[in-house]
């Protein structure tokens, strides 16, 4: 008996290996806040950088538009100066007709001044928009925390759900660790007491220790895999959100553009119909009136200038109008020839001939101008068609890329979900193994009681 008690005290005092020492229980809230803060900060920083890039692009576009408007203003100023100088010279040379030429040039000057005022207003509006965008840029760079809070509340609901799931998994893992620690301590006690009494149990005990150690290592590995899988899921869902938001923006822009274009086309159609009626009236008037009235009409008519916003239908109508004007000029030209043949010889005839020659020269110059304008319209029409085709091709390419990206993200999501299911299955298997170990422990305790 004395020897047995000494052996027991020696065995109890002997230190256990470092592997089997029970680990301190992990707190539930430990390691959550430190791991979540940098990831959230990175996401919010990336969002702020994307917004800053968008604002910079807008600023660059507005600056380009400002430069274009400034160039147009300069060109209009040069035209104004040239026209005013030519008007003054013509007034000096043509003292016989002071009232008519002055009225025409004054009308043109008023039109140009109105265009100048409109362009200045547009310039001021664009400069204000640039200033507003610059202030927004500075605010986004200075105050990222406020933006982070607002965006995290609106856009990151799925990320919060995933974080909650992670917390639940970590809690379950902590419970499993505590169970493992208790099982290891119980196994150590059983080993120290049953080595002397049962050789069979002494063989099974190290196997139990090894199994518990293996389960512990397996649980740690599974926890790491779960954390990685949840992180990748969160990243992929955020990428999907950003891509879907971009995809939604593109069709919204396209729809707004299509509606505005349809409204513009309707307005242009109504304008074109009015112009067509006016031209028909002018044709009738030209057939009835004399050549002098024709010259006055064409001097007072407004020139047709295409812009970047003109559509195909507008260009076609402008070309048709020019062709009708050419026909009118040709009819007037024929009338001039007929009247020249009918006119008698003498001083009166010479005066009429000089007048007709001047009028013919004016008509020829107008014909040349109309033909040049027609050529310019055709060239601009071809350019617009090319731009339209390139825009449609870009749109198709973007749609294809969007479909590819969405399919890839869905496949990655499925793979991550499968991995999560596998991890949960492994977790359930480990729990079943732990239950088996508990049963074996209870059997060992029962055997110990029977031996005592």
Automatic annotation (TrEMBL):
<protein>
    <submittedName>
        <fullName>Uncharacterized protein</fullName>
    </submittedName>
</protein>
<dbReference type="InterPro" id="IPR049885">
    <property type="entry name" value="MTCL1-3"/>
</dbReference>
<feature type="region of interest" description="Disordered">
    <location>
        <begin position="364"/>
        <end position="390"/>
    </location>
</feature>
<feature type="coiled-coil region">
    <location>
        <begin position="45"/>
        <end position="289"/>
    </location>
</feature>
<feature type="region of interest" description="Disordered">
    <location>
        <begin position="1"/>
        <end position="38"/>
    </location>
</feature>
<feature type="compositionally biased region" description="Basic residues">
    <location>
        <begin position="1"/>
        <end position="11"/>
    </location>
</feature>
<keyword id="KW-0175">Coiled coil</keyword>
<feature type="region of interest" description="Disordered">
    <location>
        <begin position="425"/>
        <end position="452"/>
    </location>
</feature>
């Amino acid at each position: 008996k004395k020897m047995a008690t000494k052996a027991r005290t020696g065995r109890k005092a002997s230190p256990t290996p470092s592997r089997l020492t029970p680990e301190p229980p992990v707190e539930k809230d430990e390691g959550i806040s430190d791991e979540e803060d940098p990831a959230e900060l990175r996401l919010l920083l990336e969002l702020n950088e994307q917004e800053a890039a968008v604002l910079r692009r807008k600023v660059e576009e507005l600056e380009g538009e400002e430069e274009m408007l400034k160039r147009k203003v300069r060109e209009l100023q040069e035209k104004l100066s040239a026209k005013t100088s030519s008007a003054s010279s013509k007034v000096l040379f043509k003292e016989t007709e002071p009232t008519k030429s002055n009225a025409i040039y004054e009308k043109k000057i008023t039109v140009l001044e109105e265009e100048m005022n409109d362009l200045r207003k547009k310039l001021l509006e664009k400069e204000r928009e640039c200033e507003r965008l610059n202030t927004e840029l500075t605010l986004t760079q200075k105050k990222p925390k406020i933006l982070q809070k607002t965006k995290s509340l609106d856009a990151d609901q799925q990320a919060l759900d995933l974080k909650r799931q992670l917390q639940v998994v970590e809690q379950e893992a902590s419970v499993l660790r505590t169970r493992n620690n208790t099982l290891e301590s119980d196994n150590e006690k059983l080993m120290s007491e049953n080595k002397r009494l049962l050789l069979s149990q002494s063989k099974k005990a190290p196997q139990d220790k090894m199994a518990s150690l293996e389960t512990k290592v397996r649980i740690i590995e599974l926890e790491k895999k779960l954390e990685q899988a949840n992180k990748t899921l969160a990243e992929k869902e955020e990428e999907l959100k950003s891509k879907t938001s971009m995809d939604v923006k593109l069709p919204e822009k396209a729809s707004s553009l299509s509606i505005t274009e349809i409204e513009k086309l309707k307005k242009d159609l109504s304008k074109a119909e009015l112009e067509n009626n006016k031209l028909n009236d002018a044709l009738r008037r030209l057939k009835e009136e004399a050549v002098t009235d024709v010259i006055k009409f064409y001097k007072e008519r407004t020139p047709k200038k295409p812009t970047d916003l003109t559509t195909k239908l507008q260009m076609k109508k402008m070309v048709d109008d020019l062709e009708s004007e050419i026909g009118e000029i040709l009819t007037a030209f024929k009338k001039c020839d007929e009247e020249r043949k009918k006119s008698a010889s003498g001083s009166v005839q010479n005066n009429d001939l000089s007048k007709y020659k001047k009028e013919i020269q004016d008509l020829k110059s107008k014909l040349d101008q109309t033909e040049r304008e027609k050529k310019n319209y055709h060239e601009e029409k071809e350019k617009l068609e090319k731009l339209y085709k390139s825009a449609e091709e870009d749109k198709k390419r973007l749609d294809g890329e969007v479909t590819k990206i969405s399919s890839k993200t869905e496949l990655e999501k499925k793979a991550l979900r499968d991995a999560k299911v596998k991890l949960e299955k492994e977790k359930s298997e480990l729990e079943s193994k732990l239950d088996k170990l508990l049963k074996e422990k209870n059997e060992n305790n029962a055997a110990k009681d029977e031996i005592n």
